[in-house]
């Protein structure tokens, strides 16, 4: 089954090469469809006049200052988008109006109001030094709750690597889980809500909540598929000096499309967004520098909440996690997938109750670093190299640090086919089988930090459970090693590389 999943992902997101800057005629107006300037083109007031043609503002190739364009549910795509009163109806219209080169220091904003909008594709933008381009939806107070959407916290604390706050007021209590996926605005931060009880809210954030709070949600809803046919938000071929230059903010996608938010060959950041119902709710592919998802929530999904594939230039991935404070709960597929990439880094990834899959799937990663992760109550906590599809996919390396893997239906971690796991400060219990299971040449290192990852049948095994070992006995001191000469599996206490 896992082999089919990965083939489907790579086939699904196999993009054709883009054509080179043809001139097309639309409605009697000649337009250049990408950024190159041809011999004889005349630049005037930010627009391009094709010789013998008609000057059209949508042909502008380079910004000459800041731009703000507006989209509203009551707008009209015949408008110029320049004010709220002349807002456009759909996001694609202002995307098409923005010059494909954002000049150094210029800021471009597409301001999208509350309501329902169709999908869009943003393709082929190049950002200069110090420039920004944001497509920003609207957040507002959550509605339709049985409990309150504002209040004052009466207590707070931490659970694992996330925090919670209480509001024990007897009135306006919440129904359990009704706040999941919404945002708590507290202590000057938006914090993604993992779950709630009648009086307690758990959030994927370390800041904690002090004083008053608000329960907010995305008011900008996108459905359908963009020009490429993948899903509501398609971001392709974006070049920027840093991932913070291009941002997608405050959007919610639903519907049974292939991908909710797609970043392909794009440097950028998805912030405070919510996706559910897609095969892949968030997908990042072929990132040349750094593309990442931050403070986001995944609801139901077909294959994976978050997929990172054939991407991860070492520089960008080392500078910033490719996913940070992303929550995947009650998904049908896996929580997170890291596939056939150079390097990927996750921090504060939370995956729980993946219906028939793993909290984290790693396949063909030269290096994956996961810190402060929580993988709870999945079929398997973490699954590594379980389905090789070619020689490139062999031997993933995962460094799991300061993370929790517990309550999973089988193993906490299952590693296959020459993969390597380094455990540093990993805890967890209640996994139905063992804490770690190694197959067919997989290896494991631990260091001297706390390691209490276990299962109902013991801590770790190197031969499909025939012999089960304990960390404190077989790997209790520096230099201790356990080897299975028949299948090449090995567990060793040694310092981190």
Name its key features:
497 residues; 3 domains; mainly beta; eight-stranded antiparallel beta sheet; 30-stranded mixed beta sheet; disordered N terminus; 46 strands
What is the percentage of strand-forming residues? Answer: over 45%
Helix count equals 4
Broad shape? globular
Oligomer: single chain
Percent helix among the residues? under 10%
Radius of gyration: 24 Å
Number of domains: 3
SS content category: mainly beta
Largest sheet: 30 strands, mixed
Mean pLDDT: 85
- The number of E-state strands comes to 46
Low-confidence stretches: 1-7, 15-59
Kindly, what is the distance between the CA atoms of the first and last residues, rounded to a whole number of angstroms?
34 Å
Please characterize this protein's 3D structure.
The chain has 497 residues and is mainly beta. It folds into three domains: 1-61, no CATH class; 140-218; 279-493. It is built from four helices and 46 strands. The chain has a 30-stranded mixed β-sheet that branches. Strand 43 (460-461) and strand 44 (468-469) form a beta hairpin. The chain is globular, with a radius of gyration of 24 Å.
